[in-house]
Amino acid sequence: MSLLRYESQVRPALVEGEKDYHQVTEDICRPVEAKPSKLWWIGFLISAAMLAFGILSVTIEVIYGTGQWNLNRTIGWGWDITNFVWWVGIGHAGTLISAILLLFRQGWRTGVNRAAEAMTIFAVMCAGQFPIWHMGRVWNAFFVLPYPNTRGPLWVNFNSPLLWDVFAISTYFTVSLLFWYSGLIPDLATLRDRAKKKWRKVFYGVAAFGWTGSTKHWQRHEALSLVLAGLSTPLVLSVHTIVSFDFATSVVPGWHTTIFPPYFVAGAIFSGFAMVQTLLVVTRKVLGLQEYITLEHIEVMNKVIVLTGSIVGIAYLTELFMAWYSAVPYENFAFFENRLNLNSPYGWSYWIMMGCNVLSPQIFWFRKMRRNLVLTFFMSILINIGMWFERFVIIVTSVYRDYLPSAWSTYYTPTIWEVGFYMGTFGLFFTCYFLFSKFFPVIAIAEIKHILKKNGESYKEKMDTVEKQDTEKFAHDQEHDH
Amino acid sequence: MAVKKFVTGNFYDEAVLFPAVKKTRRAGYKIHDVFTPFPIHGLDKAMGLRDTSLHTAGFIYGITGTATAVGFITWALTVDWQLNFGGKPFFALPAWIPITFELTVLFASVGMVLTFCYLCQLAPFVRKDHFNPRSTDDTFVMALECTDKTNDGEAISFLQSIGATDVQVQYKETGWWLGRYDKDTKRFERKDEAVH
């Protein structure tokens, strides 16, 4: 038998069509080596324009101060921290796909991990903007780092969740970047060795770090990937746990709950997968990679969405129950008046959150719906809207009316510069993603080749015939012997 | 850096490559390396390479991170400048767990990646010879290192007999040098007649 590996026929193929190793290289490198299409230019320019508007918004905020935003003494955290938590959450799916699914030996991750990891890095870049520019005097941003200073030295408060965040987010960004790039090196070497033009040879030659594909190097590379995955797995859980500590360690009604860490992590994976779907449903179509990012992949991710969405739903209900069960009037007010009551000023946002995050994903219990691309795309947008409102609900509806009515706030609406800043991070995210999809292979070439003979459609078919023949022969022999 | 002489052969199927590696070792040839487009599990064992100790290095880096975090925070908050945060003890170990964990991960990851790059001699602008550019595409390239005693003809016919195709003699530098990959790799190839 010429096939080295075997996987049950029950599992669907992950690479469709008749492929060999060279064909895989060709298919995935084609979009990188072709000239950018008109569609790419349109998308890229729109993103760049949004980024430019974001830069303008931030510039105005820096020149005139955070007063340019509609934050006040009661709502100190408005859109900015909502956006921060939202972007960090989106990043989590990439690490889940690349690290946790690697540890679980899930073959389907190979089709989507590269793009998802890139998404993680860009999302964390966007997230980081918000706390940094929210500082107001951003030129003093380095104060958050523990460095020897002339003020004592007065060290940062290592007991504060906000400082934990500094360490968590920066570590998360660094580790994700290293993980992503170390995985890219062999594929960049593939592009380098295929390059015809001079600039490509130089660019990919420099970027590939002189990778040759030596067996010893692969052995070390495998060890590195596995350990980085092992490190990233608790890391990704810790990051959103720590983000949730920003709220959970306070004594604000609505924030002061022990359920936050698991609830935030589930929500993060939920929204992250939705963003992966948004990107991949389009990417696979535009770059013609349907044979690698198959309907199977989309369906599996939709299953993760319905699972995590339901976990989030249970968390919402648990919160309500605990608020009632605690018999604390402030908790009760935060949940049953500020949120659940549709007629309260922000009641609508709670119901948008419930509708988008808990009710709408339930449609994915149906296989036909999970495999419907248009619906998947629509749902992915809906879920991300819902998850944005989740953070908005947690932040704004908790603080705008908490203890003393004299400290209550008026209705909070963002200014154009707050909205512009958020738009700008979309610009940053998509500009980066467009550049990534143009200059880097959006699918991990080496990893696809690694699973090709086990999960490729044509190989599975071959194996099926071998298996059937063997079974018949076995049955025949048995009959003969008796 | 020394220019050495190699006999190289291409394989297209793992099922041919594995027995070929075994036969080559048994026949007493020195396998310089096998270049593959993706990791092939078990090939390192078949070639007789020892396990990598990168894991151990990672563990040591991680422990260093833990020690750095705990040591530094303890010193800063209990010795150098004591601050009273809401009447809590100065030595508030549970509150330091998040940062300790993050630094453990950070040190382990950064340390491991740097060690990996050092061991494999990977860096921007590093150039290496690797016999056949298709070995990053779809070909498994086995390179036998020729010594004074090696008979080229025998080595070539041996490689052909174990299933290699496109077998040839190549002269290559074994180490790395600085470059950008925009020049032809032929720089270090020599004609057969030049070597005696």
Explain this structure:
The complex is a heterodimer of chains A (about 475) and B (about 200). With about 475 residues, chain A is mainly α. Chain A has a single domain, classed as Formate dehydrogenase/DMSO reductase fold, CATH 1.20.1630. Chain A contains 16 helices and no strands. In chain A, helix 8 runs antiparallel to helix 13, helix 9 crosses helix 10 and helix 11 packs antiparallel against helix 13. The radius of gyration of chain A is 25 Å and the shape is globular. By secondary structure, chain B is α+β, with helices and mostly antiparallel strands. In chain B, about 40% of the residues lie in helices and about 20% in strands. Chain B contains five helices and six strands; from the N terminus they run E-H-E-H-H-H-E-E-H-E-E. Chain B has a four-stranded antiparallel β-sheet with strand order 2-4-1-5, with helices on one face. In chain B, helix 3 runs antiparallel to helix 4. Classes of the chains: A mainly alpha (about 475), B alpha+beta (about 200).
Can you lay out the helices and strands and say which pair or pack?
The complex is a heterodimer of chains A (482) and B (196).
Chain A: H1 21-33, H2 38-64, H3 79-103, H4 109-134, H5 161-194, H6 198-207, H7 215-248, H8 260-286, H9 295-326, H10 329-339, H11 347-359, H12 367-370, H13 373-399, H14 416-439, H15 445-455, H16 457-481
Helix pairs in contact in A: 1-15, 2-14, 3-4, 3-7, 3-8, 3-13, 4-5, 4-8, 4-14, 5-6, 5-7, 7-8, 8-9, 8-13, 9-10, 9-11, 11-13
Chain B: E1 3-11, H1 14-26, E2 30-35, H2 43-46, H3 54-80, H4 93-119, E3 126-128, E4 140-145, H5 152-161, E5 165-173, E6 176-178
Helix pairs in contact in B: 3-4
